[in-house]
Structure of Putative LRR receptor-like serine/threonine-protein kinase:
Amino acid sequence: MDPEYYQTGRLSESSDVFSFGVVLLEVATGESPTLPGQGHINQRVKQKIATGNVGSIADSRLGSAYDISSMWKVIDTAVMCTADSTAQRPTMATVVIQLKESLALEETREKGSSNRVSRGSDVEAMASTLGPFAR
């Protein structure tokens, strides 16, 4: 939940940006927002960013099936969305631009790889293999 919501008791567009950032972090890392004894996902990711190894942040189920620059852009965008101060968070319009840039990087990587199946097939295969996750 947006830290400023706790202080003001009011939700805003910036609160939505914060929540969306948490969802992005969940998707990118494959982790729950909170883990017992490990704190909130945005704090865990910020600690891992210091290592400079996107592989330590990205969902391990992805293996190496992603563009590193694309993943960094998603993670950077999500971290900006989850900034403690609403003034430091991007607008959703900026988030959309960042995610489109990330997608373009991934699509370029996929076009350059002749042994890749389509992205839709990858997603379907992952969903059928992994199934839903308990919360």
